[in-house]
Amino acid sequence: MRGAERRRRLLPARLVVYFVLGLALFSPAPYLEVMRHLVEGLRGQKLLGSWHVPAKSSLFRARQRLGSEPLRVLFATTAKPMATETTPGAFWRGLRLLAVDGTCWDVADSEANEVAFGRPGNGRGPGKSAFPQVRMAALVEVGSHAVLDAELAGCRTGEVTLVGRLPRSLGPGQLVLADREFLGVPLWQAFSATGAELLWRVPANRVLPVIKQLRDGSWLSQIRASSGPARNEPVVVRVLAYQLKGQVGEGAADGYRLVTTLLDARRHPARQLAALYRERWEVESVFAEIKTHQRGARVVLSSKTPEGVRQQIWAHLLVHHALRELMLRTAATRGLDPDRVSFTETRRSARRSVTVTPGSFSP
Fold first, then answer.
1. What are the DSSP calls for 210-251, one per residue?
2. Does pLDDT of 4 surpass 50?
3. Are the C-beta atoms of residues 300 and 107 closer than 8 Å to each other?
4. 91 near 84, Cβ under 8 Å?
5. Are 99 and 178 in contact (CB under 8 A)?
6. Residue in 52, 51, 68, 73 with CA at minimum distance from that of residue 16
7. Which of 142, 198, 199, 351 has the fewest Cβ atoms nearer than 10 Å?
8. d(CA 85, CA 94)
């Protein structure tokens, strides 16, 4: 009987998921404050009855029972492209603009987290950084800032490895932008095999001989794998070289080079592609939204277990996707570019609506 009574007292999984999402939405507020926000509207409508906010230890155990997998599956199910042809900056010549990149999350300084994720060097000598880190690679829809797919691993795993798992979410009708560290034949082939088009920056030391000069100043060339059987199977690419007027610092003297799968210079002019590439930097804004404005500046993920850390990250991605969908709808009703809608104000509005009206904001 005691076991049956204990099971009745356990929080339902749906409520625990909602609580974990609440932790991300109200970050970095503590457990009990978040739970009070989530039930305040129910209390105001006298729907709580004799129910009371559980103790912090009960909420902690509920998170442990839930784990990270339900949040990961929920994200994989809901994180879909949301921009339309009318969304400013979302498409170029019929191609949906996407970008890939990576970032790292600081996590709680526990032995379990360090074993699972590793701790990078601090760049100031033989010592290591103050916190273990989780590396994340993400596929982002440029026009909406929505994260469409993500991969998590310890900081010992390289960005190229993680990004190599993202082609599963690609297909025809898309144009993927990426920075220079990702340009390699295996990754290029994995992405282009999906039918998506690519526009990636070239490392400064990469040699790209002219095979055929094109009328707009770009040229056809080849990239080769550095080793293995693919070394003898070159991949044809189109190269664009350009400089930015008035720029100083990195890249100013030698300019920039891009490679693309779009080989037709008439249909896809080099000048337009060069101007388009700056949209890649939108992914940096996405990371800032999630890690600075949503999680909190210099806030370390609090979970001391690897499973809890993964749970927190998936929750942050889910909440960010929901906020971005709300922003896109708001912009559409007002005829605005989504970039003109404040992420911070949207987050504040969502917090208020959750507190006052239950169910009004549901990732």
1. -SEE-TTS-EEEEE--SSSGGGGS-EEEEEEEE--TT--STT
2. no
3. yes
4. no
5. yes
6. 68
7. 351
8. 8
Pair of tokens at residue 86: 């009318």
For residue 252, CA distances in Å to 180, 181, 243, 256, 258 come to 16, 19, 7, 8, 15
How confident is the model over 15-49, as pLDDT tens digits? Answer: 899 999 999 999 999 999 998 888 876 665 655 66
- Residue-wise pLDDT for 334-354, tens only, equals 888 888 999 999 999 999 988
Instruction: Please provide residue 194's backbone torsions phi and psi, each rounded to the nearest 5 degrees.
Output: -75, -10
Instruction: Provide the 10 A C-beta neighbour count for residue 83.
Output: 21
pTM of the model: 0.91
DSSP letter at 98?
E
Tell me the C-alpha distance between 37 and 195, whole Å.
Answer: 46
The distance from CA 83 to its chain's CA centroid, rounded to whole angstroms, is: 16
H/E run at residue 99:
strand 95-106
- Complete DSSP assignment for 140-160: EETTTTEEEEEEEEETTS-HH
Q: Look at residue 130 and give its three-state secondary structure.
A: coil
H helix intervals, 26-147: 31-44, 56-66, 69-78, 111-117
Whether the Cβ atoms of residue 209 and residue 221 lie closer than 8 Å to each other = yes
**What is the helix (H) or strand (E) element at residue 235, kind and residue range?**
strand 235-242
3-state secondary structure of 173: coil
Cis peptide before 28 (omega within 30 of 0): yes
**273 in helix, strand or coil?**
helix
